[in-house]
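[Q] Does anyone have a clean structure-token version of this?
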Amino acid sequence: MEGKLIIFSAPSGAGKTTIVRHLLSKHAEKISFSISASTRTARGGEVNGKDYYFISKGEFLHRIAKKEFIEFEEVYSGTFYGTLRSEVDRIWATGKHVIFDIDVEGGLHLKRKFADRALAVFVQPPSLGVLEQRLRGRDTDTEEKLRERIAKAEKELGYANRFDVILNNDDLSKACAEAEKLMLDFLSGEKN
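[A] Here you go.
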């Protein structure tokens, strides 16, 4: 079996993490989550090695130099995120496909790199206003960080048409069901 990649990208707060968790809960025998590396600090109950590999900026830059990343981005000023090549290889070695919950530019980079082996899904929030409400509801960011996330989200919404599929998330249960069908069709070789 040739391993495939299922990429869910969206602005922060659009619901991609919730959708990916839903798919993992229903299809753990087929897919496994690609844990990204990040230089940011853990939020809330996040666990190193489960939610992210939290590493220092120095180590991140060292790993870039050693070409250990398939893709990486400086998502926010001074804060890097990336996909380690070893993470994708680890999942493929188990006979599963890789599922990503990744920022928009990282998702596009993976799609360019893996082409037909990857399904790139853009999770579209109902509106920028709803997105802002969701981010504020998390209560995890300073006002300055919130403004930065909202400005970035405005830019990222313009990238939606570069993805294979735009998945509207104005009704979470419907979006989860649509995501499941997209993923299963892709894994079985059917065209979307």
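[Q] Thanks! Anything notable?
[A] Residues 8 and 16 are 6 Å apart (CA to CA).
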